[in-house]
Amino acid sequence: MNASLNEETLDTFPKLLLSHARLRPDHDAIREKDLGIWQSWTWSQAESEVRALACGLASLGLKRGDKLAIIGDNRPRLYWGMTAAQTLGAIPVPLYQDSVAEEMSYVLDNADVKIALVQNQEQVDKILELKERCPKIEHIIFDEIRGLRDYDHAFLHNFEDVQQKGRELEQNDPDFYQQQVDSTNGEDIAIMLYTSGTTGNPKGVVLTNDNCIITARNGIIREGLTDKEEVLAYLPMAWVGDNLFSYAQSYVAGFCVSCPESASTIANDLREIGPTYYFAPPRVYENMLTQVMIRMEDAAKIKRHVFHFFMKHASKVGVKILNGESVSLKDSLIYKLGNIFVYGPLKDVLGLSRTKLAYTAGEAIGPEIFDFYRSLGINIKQLYGQTECMVFICSQPDGEVYADTVGTPSPDVEIKINDDGEILYRSPGVFHSYYKNPESTASTKTEDGWVYTGDAGYIDDKNGHLKIIDRANDVGKLKDGTMFAPKYIENKLKFFSYIQEAVLYGNGRDYSTAFINIDLDAVGNWAERNNLAYSGYIDLAGLPEVYQLLKECIDKVNVDLSQDSRLGNSQIRRFLILHKELDADDGELTRTRKVRRNFVAERYETLINALYSDAEECHVNTQVTFEDGRTGMLEADIRLCNAECYPLSSSPQEDAA
């Protein structure tokens, strides 16, 4: 083996790829489902593909420090593009594939992209539309040729043609590729990932090979992952989590990653692959559970009875069994019986029957939802991370998994809370800088490597775990001085399957108010079971019965808040159900589905003012963007509803009495 590939010097992704190609050449590295059939590439085949592409990119002029945009769904060729760029010392810049052209324009220009590697005609058309505004883009390479045969731009290249150029270059210079690999090192920039931009333009987070690889390796060691893991790569390539779980950890451990055929087939592909290692944000777990409960409500009576009987038992002993705690012989036998009739088949349906480790992060997950999955024997755990540290800040150790914490510091991570309650951390994953933004870099990262997270939280005295309260900038006060933590309350609301999204307002006001987006599937199913007719989202969202349903959810949250001396007076007094779903195409959400709170406040200022009045209804006229890019106007008369507020420290039993 080449001396440069010894374990201690595997400090870049091209070196790791060469190592796997030699150590496990016939082990599957990546798969892609195409036309219903799984296509696989071994590590040696993947290395050959990357070698040809890297040389091809070099023939197009890509060199050290240049930027390669990656745009499309999770595809082997796009992942290979990242490694090929890193081989040359160039920097891959993944973009969200569902971004509209205008959103892409800022990132492409800010990142100084030289070449774009894209999936298909849709993405090519976006780049062509922007090319005059992004003159630094010299070449566009596409993966899928469908629809592009008649395009005759000299700067437009088929992926396979670029690889052929690479093979020709290597024939003329056989040592070129190895020399490029050997010249890479851990301090080189590995990737640039753009933040979601909830409060302004996104920032390019510059991460080195050391940031990515050391963090990935520490996570692997902590959880005991091996080269036998199976992962489904379905989250956006532009998101840091996909770069950790589907790329960095795969390259470090040597396990196989599978790319689904399309967004619409993910559920089926998940069942076929049966990943052993899985990540999903809370909303995905919530949606999966919602679909299960909808199907059970439509099932035969005896089937519903069996399901509820065993799930009730699982809620009593399932988590204890998962944690290795002792339970009675009777409870153990009933649980095993439940595994035959309910838990096993249910995990098969969810695609999680082989899952040894499942993570969730990004938002708080409801305790009931969290315990539901753990009671089935699925080792789901919460973690806390950021793009600026290659994800890992905290994670939950086995045997110390709590629904209301995000765990203890990950290996080599230090955490402290400053006097303002803001969380700071220091780790090997701390980012190099924000691209072309020294002011933001200096305000986020101290000279000795501490990073301000922007999150408010504290260390629990009982177990040493970190608890997150809210975004530090979002925490405010009502007029009476009560702490106002909107995200904390919004997460409580989203624990209910009927609520898709919630946005709270109240800072500097007399009381808290809420915008609600209903979950169309869950509320629609509820409406059908209650013989309520509706024609679509707007109609359903305006039904008095739906308002009553949501009021009951909000009232439960208010009861919970009344137990909290710090937040008791921030109970929601008034709310409305928005006439449309918040949408990234309308600028209301980021591409990672985070609410742009200030934008929503400006857009719906009339509705906010109405909530702080005695009005019972408010007319609104909103511009919306349709799937084909056209815009139109949406009018609606929105009802405003009062919620029940409870005395501090009251209990549900007392209020019911």
Description:
The chain has 657 residues and is of the alpha/beta class. Among the domains are: 3-197 and 230-256, Rossmann fold, CATH 3.40.50.12780; 475-656, 2-Layer Sandwich (GMP Synthetase, Chain A, domain 3). It is 39% helix and 21% strand. It has 22 helices and 29 strands. The chain has a five-stranded parallel beta sheet with strand order 4-3-5-6-7, sandwiched between helices. Strands 12-13-14-15-16 form a five-stranded mixed beta sheet, covered by helices on one side. Helix 14 links the parallel strand 13 and strand 14. It is globular, with a radius of gyration of 26 Å. 47% of the residues are buried.
CATH topology of the domain at 3-197 and 230-256: Rossmann fold
Radius of gyration: 26 Å
Q: Segments where pLDDT lies below 50 for 5+ residues? A: 1-6, 650-657
Q: Could you give the order of strands across the largest sheet?
A: 4-3-5-6-7
What's the story with the biggest beta sheet?
A: 5 strands, parallel
Q: Total number of β-strand segments?
A: 29
**Mean pLDDT across all amino acids:** 93
